[in-house]
Amino acid sequence: MAKQFFAESELTGLHPDANGVMPPVAYSLRGPVPQMFLVTVSRDAKHVGPTVRTVPMTPLSWVPYTMAVTVSLEDSVVVENLRQPGAQCVLAEPTRHMLRQLTICSRRLPRGLSEANVARFKLMRSLYIDVPGIADCPLNMECTVEHLETYHDHLIAFVRVVGGSIDDSVLFWERQQIVNLFPTNDVDTIVDGQGNVVKRVAIMGDLFLCPTFPCAPKQGWYGTFDQWMKELREEDYLSRQEYETIIAWHARWQEILAQPASEERSRLQRQLTDVCRLIAQERWDDVHSLLAD
Amino acid sequence: MGGYYRACPIHGQLYPKSMGSHLAMRSHRVIVNGYTLLRVDVVQHPHNILAPDVCGGDIGSLSIGGRMGRLYYSINELLKRPVLPGISDRTQIYYHFRPARPANLVVTRDPLSGDLNVSAGTYGVLTEYPLTIGLHISKHSFDTARNIQGVGTECVVALPTRHQIRETWYTALPIPRGIFEGDIAGFTLLPSQAVSVPGIAECPVNLECRTEMVKDWHTHYAVFLKVVAASIDDELLTHDRQDIIRYYPTYEVDDQLNIFGGSIERLGVNGDLLSCPGFPVDARRGAAAPTEEWIGDLQAAGYVSEADATTIKGWLHSWRDAEARGNEAQMNRLREPLTRALELAAWEDWPALHDHVATMQEGKA
Questions:
Q1: Smallest CA–CA separation between B362 and chain A, in Å?
Q2: pLDDT digits (tens, 9 = 90+) for A78-129
Q3: Does B13 score more than 60 pLDDT?
Q4: How many CA atoms lie within 13 A of B202 on its CB side?
Q5: To the nearest whole angstrom, how far is the Cα of A8 from the nearest Cα of chain B?
Q6: CATH annotation of A31-202
Q7: Mind telling me how many Å the CA of A58 is from chain B's nearest CA?
Q8: What is B196-233 written as a DSSP string?
Q9: What is the rounded end-to-end Cα distance, in angstroms, of chain B?
Q10: pLDDT attached to residue B18
Q11: With CB atoms counted within 10 Å of each terminal CB, which end of chain B scores lower, N or C?
């Protein structure tokens, strides 16, 4: 496959124009990213509705459940709201039916006007924080701001989910149906045939199952190598002798791992690579032949 | 019905103070797919106003959904992973609250031996220009966590396709340190231009990255990477965006149960490409244009009259002036007419917008 390479200076050339539209290849390089409605409020501004902004999300950790949202430093209203001591926010997931609201909440209205009203969002109380959620969104996450990083020309807010709510009408939907509804992924911004700037989003489509045992530990994620081999032995994919050979290789490998110049290390590296590859590909006859040698 | 599915909303003792008497709640038990749930309907408050103590102030025209039933979960309930053996959660709440995340294969080099490593993970885009991406590396992903531990560390983030599901999974296997998962997956190394770590030739996009920040973050490391060079398959340069997003990247969607009670990773790709409405819902130049320019575009295209556009722009000018001066009384006068005008424009209700502006002008007169 022929490749087109971009040096750093060429990447610099893929800058957005005055309307925020980047060359198509820039979007191909970054891929579509999950987006949320970020709801914040200013504690100082009485009688001001919440600010709702469309932001990209980056996952951080599961326990506790944290994620990062990115806001341009030029978005002074949201930046100030996030920088308030003890700041809170709601992350509400947009659906495929909220395209107009995505457009509206991408616009920064003059300070003090609420995008929630312009977008005709129905707001609702949150249970664990003071910032309201968006009742129209099937899923709202109530968050506290744990950490802020100024990074290039953006503010990265590390937020911690402290509770959430879901529309009960989707509660028992199949996962495929759920991911076909929300959230949306920010794909690109283009100029359409009439010369208008248009944002495009996508929604999840096809789903695929990864392989499972025997070409992975029964547990899946976080299973260990030795446990996986033991399971293969217990299920008769490996004979006792084959199992013991692999475990011995592994033990010896760990002993000489820090000896990169060792010939034995190179040999063991090849052997372990081969046996792992053949097991992962479920080529059992080849596994037996390799271990018999 | 066990506690896991218990709805914990709005029932009297949970909301004793803040709900006050402003909202009417009705709770009743409903049966959904054989599960008994506590359903709470929030009944429209006659004035559409929440109690002032909710957000530090009167939050304007905040209204409550008429018949929306919502189930609230504490964080402890959200963190209960349903794939644990013996727990079958038909609601899949754990996954609903975790949006599908774009998947990547990150190639790193072991600082001890120089051995290569490739691991599956997920990423987010932090900034588009310059292109920077965020990785969250589990402390259980020992190899990657060890190999990306300092500012300046180099790596390649490769984006896998829908045809590399099996190969992606291979890179998530618990292979011993020093054994290159790329060899197990049958990947070909792609020499990089700007970093010492190679990419993966079979992946359509390879992002050559330098680490700019590593933060120890609970169970993970948050890693900020700057893309210093990149490559993309030539043929993708001419492909339709719809085809591209159905091809790559893949996303980590959820786990399914295998017959042993363990998990099977499930990946996905994007499906439908949807266009958000542009002009006249927004300015012709999009969100980058000032709101005044949007109103000007509407006038130029004949959606609003010159008189109406002048009035709305006048409100905007007065609003900005009042906001800059801290003139709250003026802002309070302008908030409703201005918000309503922008709302009607955003929802393309032109006759109502004209009537609204006329009514406001008559009132003023």
A1: 23
A2: 999 999 999 999 999 999 999 999 999 999 999 999 999 999 999 998 999 9
A3: no
A4: 16
A5: 5
A6: 2.30.110.10
A7: 4
A8: SS-EETTSSEEEEEEEEEEEEETTEEEEEEEEEEEEEE
A9: 63
A10: 32
A11: C
Closest of B160, B97, B157, B77 to residue B125, by C-alpha: B157
Q: What is the pLDDT of residues A152-197, one digit of tens each?
A: 999 999 999 999 999 888 877 888 999 999 999 999 999 999 999 9
Partners of residue A118 in chain B, C-beta under 8 Å:
339, 342-343, 346
Measured between CB atoms, which of A154, A165, A219 is closest to B262? A219
A275 to chain B, closest Cα gap in Å: 9
ipTM exceeding 0.90, yes/no: yes
- Choose the closest CB to A217 out of B174, B190, B234: B174
- Decide if B166 and A124 are in contact by the 8 Å CB cutoff: no
By CB atoms closer than 10 A (0-12, 13-18, 19+), residue B301 is exposed
Stated length of chain A: 293
The type of residue at B221 is Y
CB–CB of B278/B284 below 8 Å? Answer: yes
Give the mean model confidence (pLDDT) for residues B197-203.
Answer: 98
Question: Mean pLDDT over all residues of chain A?
Answer: 95
What's the whole-number mean pLDDT along residues B241-252?
98
How far, in whole angstroms, is CA A275 from its chain's centroid? 32
Nearest CA in chain A to B173: A216
Q: Two tokens at A4?
A: 């087109």
Which of B95, B249, B276 is closest, CB to CB, to A200?
B276
What are the two backbone dihedrals, phi and then psi, of residue A121, each rounded to the nearest 5 degrees?
-75, 140
Q: What are the boundaries of each domain within chain A?
A: 31-202, 220-292
Which pLDDT tens digit goes with each residue over B52-75? 223 222 222 223 333 457 888 888
